[in-house]
Design brief:
The protein is built from 15 helices and no strands. The protein has helices at residues 3-33, 45-52, 56-60, 68-77, 85-98, 105-119, 131-152, 157-182, 195-207, 211-218, 224-232, 241-259, 264-278, 281-287, 289-312. By secondary structure, the chain is an all-alpha fold. It has one domain (3-312).
């Protein structure tokens, strides 16, 4: 396969997954903003969403205040933000057109149909009450595209490159959506483990549609350290960091088997998978959740760079 084709398939999947992630970050921020204020404390969930998405500095160049309207506009629709939902779908379709013959009909229809619907939508007419509906539409696009790839693509190089893009991006996104909780969210006057802390953790879990999964795994009331464990270390949870890396290792190994050789990408992915297998959640909190996530994101970027150098350049 040409590296140019592999690159388009890889980034097509990454941008679809990134649109889904941005929708989930906005959903989490929306849920957190609806939590009751305790005493005179205030939270900054909208600024937290921007910081976690890595868009805070860019946002401040265009807006003075981070609130529901400005953050929704910037993260969902702004052409000034290359990672906005609108721009992600635009870029995904551009990559899809470049490899149209490498996609199944169902995959193309999912992304092209979403692009047409988005261009037909007057974003300025979307009311606050319709935001949740729009975010669910974005998440549904990701499900349709990912499901179409899983059910209709041949298990060849093209499929494995779409999987690499999906799981590299999903691992990064899971880490970042967890970081919504501890980046700048909990007010200094609120106690970790208190009522506000608990409610914020529950909102994060609901944003990734994992409340039922949590109860199936733990059969317990919501506990912050168990929520973090589910999203970081539990291989049963398809969005967990460990599950993403198990899938990354599998996809990279199949590519290596097809090419007849391995390289830095395989070694780095296996090293991260082994680290996650051997880590306990008490060790994560001993280091600090935010610090652990920062280290993971940096290592995940290293894996992505190794994949690009080994296969896509």
């Amino acid at each position: 396969m040409l590296s140019r084709t592999a690159d388009s398939l890889y980034w097509l999947s990454r941008y679809i997954e990134r649109a889904d992630y941005t929708a989930r970050v906005l959903d989490a921020a929306n849920r957190l903003s609806a939590l009751p204020v305790v005493g005179e404390t205030s939270t900054n969930e909208w600024e937290s969403a921007l910081a976690t998405a890595g868009c805070l500095d860019a946002f401040r160049r265009h807006y003075e205040e981070a609130n529901a309207d400005t953050v929704m506009e910037f993260l969902a629709f702004s052409p000034a933000n290359p990672s906005s939902i609108r721009q992600c779908i635009e870029t995904a379709r551009f990559n899809a057109r470049a490899v149209r013959t490498g996609l199944t009909t169902q995959m193309w229809e999912a992304i092209n149909g979403a692009w047409i619907d988005l261009h037909a939508t007057d974003v300025s007419a979307i009311k606050p009450s319709q935001r949740t509906q729009f975010l669910e539409w974005v998440k549904d696009l990701s499900l349709r595209f990912d499901g179409s790839a899983y059910r209709t693509m041949l298990r060849d190089e093209g499929y494995w490159f779409t999987r690499l893009g999906t799981f590299v991006e999903r691992a990064d996104n899971t880490a970042r959506i967890l970081d919504v909780k501890y980046h700048v969210l909990l007010p200094e006057s609120s106690n970790v483990g208190g009522g506000l802390d608990y409610s914020q953790w529950a909102a994060i879990l609901r944003a990734v549609n994992s409340v039922t999964a949590y109860h199936w795994v733990y059969r317990d009331s919501l506990k912050p350290w168990l929520i973090a464990e589910l999203m970081i270390l539990k291989s049963e949870m398809p969005r967990s960091l460990r599950a993403c890396y198990l899938s990354l290792v599998e996809s990279l190994d199949l590519l290596a088997e097809d090419a007849g050789r391995q390289g830095p990408a395989q070694r780095k992915a296996r090293a991260m998978a082994l680290k996650l297998e051997q880590t306990r959640i008490d060790q994560v909190f001993a280091v600090g959740l935010h610090e652990f996530i920062e280290d993971f994101i940096a290592a995940n970027n290293g894996v992505a760079a190794a994949i690009a150098e080994q296969y896509l350049i």
